[in-house]
Amino acid sequence: MSRVRRIGATRLDLNEIMKRGGLAVLSVLAVLLPILKISFTSETDDVVLGDFQLLGGAAYLLPAAFLCGLATVVFDGMRVHARFVDIAGLIIVFAAVSRAAYSLGSSLRQDAAAVDAPAQSLDQLAQVSLSYGSIPLLLVLFGALWQLRKSWRS
Question: What does pTM read for this prediction?
Fold first, then answer.
């Protein structure tokens, strides 16, 4: 059974719509859900991708890129730009993952330094860990890599 449908002169690939739609939904979840959890001695705080510590306003480019990727399936004029949109989405998600990994790594490095010396400030008492919002972000990263590999071959 063919998964390609025609609506007028437009050819729609339903498999491609489902894949790119899933990436768009995961990218929205990655922006909305907390990525990191910061625990102080008395309270915890969640850091989302749009916070200043991670990407700030640039985090909203992530769903925009993957929604544009979804539009490349629907609109004929955008199909020639699908590879560029896939590369842009991959760059944004790579920047988000690397920034979160840097924040997590710098926290772990401060924890190791705090063992050797007494704590100098409140920042050294904070512990940073991954939160449940990091799962959609990593899925978007792997999905974007897979989608770029697929679009590069065609």
Answer: 0.77
